[in-house]
Amino acid sequence: MFGVARNLRIFLSSQRYQWLSFLIYRSQGAIWLVVFSLSTLASVVGISVIYSVSNGIAGWSYYQILALSGLANTILGVVDYLVNPWNLVTNMRNGTFDQVLTKPYNPIVLVLSRQGWVAATGSIVSGLALFVYSIAQLQVNPLAILPALALVALGCVAVTLFMVFMSMLAYVLFKSANFLHWIVSIAKSTAEYPLGIYGVTGIFLLTVGLPIGIASFYPAELMFSKIDYTPVLVVAAIAIVLSYLFYRGSLWLLKFYTSGGG
Amino acid sequence: MTGAWRLRAYMAVLRVNMKETLAYKSDLVLTLILSVMSSLIYIIVWSAVYSFSNTSSLNGLTLSGMLAYFVVLSAISPILGWPKVVNNMQDDIREGSIARLLIRPMSYVEQLFVEAMPYDLLFFLFASLPIMALVVLIGGFGLSASTLLLFAAELLIGYLIINLLGFMIGSMAVYLTNIYGIAEGISWVFSIAGGGVVPLLFFPAEVAGALMLTPFPLLFYLPAGTLIGIVTAQQALGGIETGLVWLAILALAARTVWSRVNMAINTVGV
């Protein structure tokens, strides 16, 4: 039932369907892609203003912060593309989540393939454009980028599964998930700046609690040679462990789902 | 429908929605805490900026002034930075409950605004007022009656503006169903253009001047700046005048949008 190839096929089929639905109205779709990229533009404006009036933030140059911001926007774009916590909890509350559980596929894969926003591609593309532009300005060694991107991928999986887990937990505990909107907002605001400014508690929370730091901050530090490979390997291990825990935790929490008969 | 009957009806809708909002108490408490925290992040960021620049003042604004600015924002931006009508409209359209609401002998648009109020009222009473009182007491800002009046006017106009903007974004749900992410993207632009991330006095003069002609400073910069004294009474009055013009434009635009969207609603009659 949980075969990787089988689940990958249903995921890709769902993506194809979602994209076809999205592209039916092409000009409208283009507008939404632009709208989703606005948050990246807003980040560039905010950072540019900060650097125009000050010496910057904690030893990070303007382009390094832009690259970090680009990564943060890309990662949160990926999360938005795959998970919509608010809709997920609403579907669970009104019983329409039955459609997911009655299909012979991994329910987490079905959640990831059906609950997100295709238009979040705008955020992914604009974040990537900002990232590529910034590292081009910094002339970063391409060989330093590859291991950093591997860490980005691991962090991205951890953050996505964290959002699925939190949505399920919000359903079980509160039957509501309005507060998750603010978690996403806090994740976005914090991930755009170096973790060091948040102190030890902030570093801990944004690495082990809400693992957005794993996906953006540590890879950026690795790319700009601010840390060596030993802490990166530890962070990568944390990402793998957290992903597994969030995945198993989400499956366990699904047992508390009560059908509303929708 | 007479005025008194309408008022009674809307008070009843408000009471019911207040109870619904309070039904998910833990979610509400977490939302209150996290929404305050989201602006407090910028206190940490700006503290780091001041510390790294080794200065006590940037563009004439001291660190304590900057901290006060973001604490006040943490008290007002959850109300002025995110229009609740967006969530309600999306729910109504997605779940089909708009059909039930449209056949009530009350305007759907008015119901929508009344339904969006309970959370804002609760946040204002239990978070905004205590936080702002603390800022004024600890920061020692000498508040005159005229400053408070200007602040209240900015808050009220800002509240109406964000909800009208939210209404127009929410109307898109008729065509798109899922608009939550779009609203989030747009709200980031409101935040930047309104001084929610960086106070407008940090922007180049021409850009700040142009932004002051938009409705966005009334959502963040003008109310927070008026309360902590970085916005003069003259600037506040100018902002209020601009806000009133925008209010009229947005009300007219919202009416036009709704008259078109109203014809396109499809529902299965849940």
Describe the structure.
The complex is a heterodimer of chains A (262) and B (270). Chain A starts with a helix and ends in an 8-residue tail after the last helix. The radius of gyration of chain A is 19 Å and the shape is globular. Chain A has 13 helices and no strands. The model of chain A has no long low-confidence stretch (mean pLDDT 88). Chain A has one domain (4-14, 32-254). Chain A has helices spanning 4-23, 26-53, 62-82, 85-93, 98-101, 107-114, 121-138, 142-174, 178-191, 199-209, 212-215, 217-223, 229-254. With 262 residues, chain A is mostly helical. Chain B is an all-alpha fold. Chain B has one domain. Chain B has helices at 3-23, 25-53, 63-80, 84-95, 98-102, 108-139, 145-171, 173-176, 180-194, 205-211, 221-228, 233-264, and strands spanning 57-58, 61-62. Chain B has a two-stranded antiparallel ribbon. In chain B, strand 1 and strand 2 (61-62) form a beta hairpin. In chain B, helix 2 (25-53) packs antiparallel against helix 3, helix 3 (63-80) packs across helix 11 (221-228) and helix 7 runs antiparallel to helix 11 (221-228). The radius of gyration of chain B is 20 Å and the shape is globular. The mean pLDDT of chain B is 85. The interface between A and B is large, with 52 and 46 residues.
| Greatest interface (CB-CB under 8 A), with counts per chain | A-B, 52 and 46 residues
Q: Mean pLDDT of chain A, nearest integer? A: 88
Q: Can you tell me the number of structural domains of chain A?
A: 1
Strand content of chain B: under 5%
| Shape, per Cα inertia axes of chain B | globular
Reported for the largest beta sheet of chain B, the result is:
2 strands, antiparallel
Shape of chain A: globular
How many domains would you count in the coordinates of chain B? 1
Count of discrete alpha- or pi-helical segments spanning 4 or more residues of chain A: 13
Number of helices of chain B: 12
- Tell me the Rg of chain A in angstroms: 19 Å
Tell me the series of helices and strands of chain A, N- to C-terminal.
HHHHHHHHHHHHH
Averaged pLDDT of chain B: 85
Low-confidence stretches of chain B: none
Distance from first to last alpha carbon of chain B = 26 Å
How much helicity do the residues of chain B have? over 70%
